[in-house]
């Protein structure tokens, strides 16, 4: 039973860390998309 609790706590910690990482990647991707969009607008004008 103790091993199961330790495993559950470890899984919860990893899941929380993964969410923060994925959120950061999402922000980076969004910023890159905005940069490409801005460059496309500049090229169009």
TrEMBL record:
Signal peptide location: 1-18
Keyword field: Cell membrane, Lipoprotein, Membrane, Palmitate, Signal
Pfam families, per database record: Entericidin
Superkingdom of origin organism: Bacteria
Family (UniProt): Belongs to the EcnA/EcnB lipoprotein family.
Protein's name in the database: Entericidin A/B family lipoprotein
């Amino acid at each position: 039973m103790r091993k199961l609790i330790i495993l559950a706590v470890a899984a919860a910690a990893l899941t929380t860390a993964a969410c923060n990482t994925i959120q950061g990647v999402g922000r980076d991707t969004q910023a890159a998309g905005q940069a490409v969009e801005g460059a496309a607008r500049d090229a169009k004008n």
